[in-house]
Each structure stands twice: as C-alpha cells, then as structure tokens.
Design a protein that fits this description.
It contains nine helices and 14 strands. It is α+β, with helices and mostly antiparallel strands. The N and C termini lie far apart (about 45 Å). Bound molecules: N-hydroxy-L-asparagine.
C-alpha cells in the first residue's frame, strides 16, 4: 500500500511537470532581468496593494534606481567620459500603446518616474538631456548631483589608464592608446567591433508586469555604459528595443550591448513573434538569433511573457555570459523565484 502511495506521488509529480513546464502560466506576473530580487518584490507589492501594471513596473524600476542595482541602474554608476552619470529609462502601457521615456537624463535620480511623467503629462514619447532635467524639475522631481565616490573613482582610474576602454574609432590620436580630444582620421578602416560588454558593466533592469485582467506594461532603467561618449543613448529608452508591451500579444525587455541591440528592435520582434503564436522562450530565442547573425559576439539577453503569463528568456553565449538569471513572481509563488536560462 505504501509502495502504491509512493508510485502515485511520483506519477502525480511527473504529470504536473508535463502540464506545468518551466514558465508555467499564472497571473498576475512580474518578471525582470537579472537577480534584482528587491525590485521584483517592490513591483509585486504594488500589484498586490491594488496598483496598476504601470505602478508595478515603476515601483520595481524605481527600487533598483534607489538601490543602485549592481551599479548599473540609478545614480553613482557608469560615469561617462566626463565623469557624469546620466540615466535612460522608459515605460510602456500595453493597453494604450503609450510610451514615456527619458534619455541622457542628468541630475535626477528617479528616471523611471520622469519617464512616466513624460507619458502622462505630455504628448511626447522621449525627452533627452538637460531639457529632460528641466521637464523633470517642472514636474516636481529634485535635481541633485548623481556623482558618488565610487563613480568618481571609476572615472579617475580610467583617466589614469589612458582612457581605456573607450568607444572611439577611426580617430587621431589613436584612441586605443591615448585620451582625446580626437579628430576624425582622413581614411577609415573597418574594425571588428570591440567587445565592450561584460557582466560587470551591463545590468539594466527590464521589467514586465501583467495583472489578472490581462493588462500588460513594460519598462527599463539604466545608467548605460561606463565611459560612454557624452550624449550617448542606449537601447533601454527606445520603444521596441529596450522594452515593448502590447496587451493583445505580450511583452519583452532586453539588456546588454545597447549600441548593437537597438539596431534590431529585439523587444518588438519578440512581441510580434508571440502575436504570431510563438511561445515566449522561442520568441526570445529568435530575437537573440537575429542579432547573432550579424554580431555573433554581442553581449545581450531578453525576457519575454505572453498574455496568458507564460514566460521565457534567452541570451547570447559569450565569455562572461553563459547563463542568464532573471526573477519571476506570479500567483504560483508570491516570493520571487530566481530563474536561469542557458545561453546559446
Ligand atoms: C545600454 N542596454 O545602455 C544598456 C546597458 C545594459 O545590461 O543593458 N546593460 O546599452
């Protein structure tokens, strides 16, 4: 009898794994890039306390901005060539297809909050630079220095190391050896793109939230790339690249080498594939494959979720990224689950 009981339990577990494979659908759902658990918790509590999916995405990304997740989100990280930290963020409403975004935002800590203000208080989609700061101040955000001892230190070490690495090419003096200012070289040579990315310099938060009513939102927040050329904007605030959400199809959010990834709109592509019936893991994989075809060594990953709450992720296998970690909370487990996917 005991043996029969054991067999029954084994059979039940086996059946459950067939019916509920990894990524099993359950709503509501919060999913975000990297193991930023506190961000997942913040987004989930926003949903649980009656907030909308936009509230959840805003709360989750704001949490990372405050916590300076991995130094790659929020103030005091990724100083540019002048030593300044600037922020990119976006938020998208999958019901209305409204987007609010800021890029190269200076002196304001809560970039995702400003992105939401762009969406809710203007007819624009993306505000940039010092003008975005002025907009933020008019909306009640406080302007303050985003520099910390840590970012100052990263900056001064970089100066001491002859400004290596940097993002210049085809310039004089030789940017692989010395600091600027640089001037264009008369003759240009094609160089394979340098491998700028690694797990330490890239950790944008990208987040998707879906509620019980099937409303979807997605968002991102980052301080971009360390030592970027001032004025550089990454993929994170670009709709369809950093994130995309359509409550009729699904949502996706990307992380990685934004200068390459934004050329392929991977989040848009993944959502369109889910609209056509692809499951989230396959959609994520196809979006990564599209980029790989041209930049086999790019650093990047993407998370995808469809309207029923199935989710998946994919990443490009490069040294330093063989497995990608992301967080999931849904009604199956209200404490965040750390998930991982093997890169390919
Ligand atoms: C950027 N995509 O600015 C961002 C950086 C990043 O994971 O995602 N890191 O290019």
């Amino acid at each position: 009898m005991r043996r029969q009981g054991k067999m029954f339990v084994s059979l039940l577990i086996y059946t459950l794994t067939l019916v509920f494979p990894a990524g099993y659908a359950s709503l509501p759902l919060v999913i975000n890039t990297w193991p930023f658990k506190d961000a997942t918790v913040a987004a989930w509590s926003a949903l649980q306390s009656g907030g909308s999916v936009l509230d959840a995405v805003e709360a989750g990304c704001a949490r990372c901005e405050m916590d300076q997740c991995d130094g790659s989100v929020g103030y005091g990280g990724s100083p540019d060539e002048r030593g300044e930290t600037t922020l990119d963020a976006m938020i998208m409403n999958g019901d209305t297809m409204e987007v609010g975004a800021v890029a190269d935002l200076r002196r304001i800590k809560n970039a995702i909050g400003v992105a939401r203000a762009v969406m809710e208080h203007t007819d624009h989609t993306l505000l940039v630079g010092q003008s975005a700061t002025m907009f933020a101040e008019s909306m009640g955000f406080i302007a303050e220095d985003l520099t910390t001892n840590k970012s100052l230190n990263i900056f001064s070490e970089w100066l001491k190391g002859n400004c290596q690495p940097n993002y210049w090419k085809n310039v004089n003096p030789d940017s692989s050896k010395t600091c600027g200012p640089y001037r264009p070289k008369a003759t240009q040579t094609w160089n394979k793109r340098a491998q700028h990315a690694n797990t330490h310099s890239h950790d944008t938060i990208g987040m998707i939230a879906i509620d019980n009513g099937g409303h979807l939102a997605a968002g991102t927040s980052t301080n971009g790339l360390t030592h970027k050329i001032p004025g550089r904007v990454g993929d994170s605030p670009i709709a369809g690249s950093g994130a995309y959400a359509d409550s009729l199809a699904g949502a996706a959010a990307a992380t990685g080498d934004g200068d390459v990834m934004m050329r392929f709109l991977p989040s848009y592509l993944a959502v369109e594939l889910m609209r056509a019936g692809a499951d989230p893991s396959a959609a994520c994989k196809s979006a990564i494959s599209r980029i790989k075809r041209h930049y086999s060594e790019f650093f990047g990953a993407i998370i995808c979720a469809n309207t029923t709450g199935h989710y998946g992720a994919a990443c490009n296998k490069v040294p330093g990224l063989t497995q990608f970690h992301y967080m999931v909370t849904n009604s199956e487990s209200s404490t965040p689950m750390l998930k991982s996917v093997d890169c390919f």
